[in-house]
Amino acid sequence: MKSNNKPANLALPKKAVSKPAKVTIHQLPTGVRGLDDILGGGIPEFSFNIIGGTPGCGKTTMAHQIAFANATPKKPALYFTVIGEPVIKMLRYQQQFPFFDESKLGKDIRFFNLSDVVLEKDLNAVLEEIIKQVTAANPGIVVVDSFRTVARKAGNEVGEVEMQSFIHRLAQFLTSWEATTFLVGEYSEDEIRDNPLFTMVDGIFWLSQVAERNSVVRKLRIMKLRGQASVPGMHTVRIGDGGLQAFSRTLGLGGNKKQSPRRRRLSVGIPELDKMLGGGIFEGDSLLVAGPSGTGKSALATQFIAEGLHRGEAGIMAIFEERPEGYTQRASTFGLNLKTAQQNGKLETLYLRPLDLSVDETMQEIFDAIGRVGAKRLVIDSLVGFEMALAPGFRADFRESLYRMIGALTGAGITILSTVEVEDRFTELAFSHYAISFLTDDIIRMRYVEIDGQLRKVMVVVKMRGGNHSKDIREYVITNKGVVVIHPRRTDYHALITGIPQQTGPRRAQEFETAPEPKASK
Amino acid sequence: MSRATPQMRNFAKRLIADEARGYKLSATKTSADFNVCEKLRPNLAAFMGNTGFRALLSRALALAQAEVPRLRAVHVNADGALEGAEEHRAQLDPDELFEGRVVLLAQLLGLLVAFIGENLTLRLVREVWPKASLDD
Hints:
The complex is a heterodimer. By secondary structure, chain A is of the alpha/beta class. Chain A is built from 17 helices and 24 strands. The radius of gyration of chain A is 31 Å and the shape is elongated. By secondary structure, chain B is an all-alpha fold. Chain B is about 60% helix and about 5% strand. Chain B contains 3 helices and 2 strands; from the N terminus they run H-H-E-E-H. In chain B, a hairpin with a 5-residue loop joins strand 1 (about 75) and strand 2 (about 80-85). The longest helix of chain B is centred in the middle third of the chain and has 33 residues, at about 35-65. The radius of gyration of chain B is 14 Å and the shape is globular. Classes of the chains: A alpha/beta, B mainly alpha. The interface between A and B is medium-sized, with 17 and 19 residues.
């Protein structure tokens, strides 16, 4: 007999056991280019944050950008000013930025001066005034600038516990009123550990200025952000004509390098060199052209870009040494027309020479330009100039940054030709003093050699990842067609790479020999 | 440098006239002394703090006094209100008083324009007089 005493099925129906949905934390845009990515998507809604740092780092500008990006008539931004920068000066300066939409003032963005209450009354009165204004305005964003002033004034009169209690009540009220809050304050990094404010807030946006030698660079660190993962580390920020802009130190790392097994080969615009490369360089490769000054690296780079344009592939030239006009002019002497492509938006020349750039900013500039013209080819001329354009603080990380940048760009399917100047030595064939050959797929080395009383030029394909290539050391000349690899393929010399080759065969009669590059005529 | 440009003076005159109409008073000379400044005060003080408003109004008054010496009887009190005209009203010519009010308001508005621009100044003024316009 079957027993009916089955254990009771205590399990709930499937529907009931399914996990209750997690709360969705909506994210607000910051209005600061690059910052949303650093934050992991945006600002967590209803969070209580601090924008801290030393004076002049861009705290107020950041607060304004956030306010303008989110303020609407229904959910305005309420901007409390407390002593610090007088509001008329604040507005005078902030209205210079394009994000400052004057039509939003009054309804969408409301300024309220708390100075008198802070100066004349106690913390309870300050809280009451904030509650009164917030209740009346129903804001989505609340800024208190500077909160440090509130804390400093109160700190002279009340104890730490009262101050903590005030912050707690303020945070609780503003969160309950569904406001996302930013307390702006001038703090030094040493204060963070002992100041309870930093424990109580949900997010700490830390801005700083780093001076090194003659260069000053602004940095941002998200020290804390509850509820979501932000990108750790120090990110470069710049205050430019458009306001504050942030450059994530992991910019571009999100994209995976997707290379199809059957990649196209791209012509570099020099037929013999294409043959040496086994048919051209692979699309999406990073090619390093190394050689001493005057060997034709920029000429080769120009031909590479021009060939792409000829085949309908838009290009970017990021140049750090030569002026853009010089590039265009040289191209025209080779019979290559870059001007038309520039006018048609198929070619953009980025002339980057400030001395306090970060690689991230450069990368952003290049990414933006790629987006604008739909570029497939990129020239970086040269890595030495690029390094010089960086702030000293970034030069130490140049290799790492370059690795990240090249990875990001080739990951986006861009074929890169970088040039690097190397000193010719007569004992070895150095590729680059950066030891960066590990991050390039292909390397072409150019060098001078002494032959028959002439300083001639040779090139060799040293490396080609994923493809066979010629091992020949070929002589080339720079003519009115640009870099031209000349014949014969085989030479009667050995030890060419030392720069002082030795003739192997019998010496040919001088009268039958024409020098590839004639000596200057009188 | 005087901020009371002809445009600012016209603007000030219109605001004073509009305000006088609001009081159902004849267009100008007999209306309350500085009621336009007074009406602007709460909004401007909320915007820039009482101290900020007092500083700006004091500067405007100093500039206006250089143009209309009779305004030397007027001063800005601790709350940011203008005082002093009442006691000297008997000695003041109504035209001169009216001119003083226009110049003072024009200087105040002119200073605001110098600091934050026409658009923002107009926005602040329109919080009190929504139809106010810089031009006729």
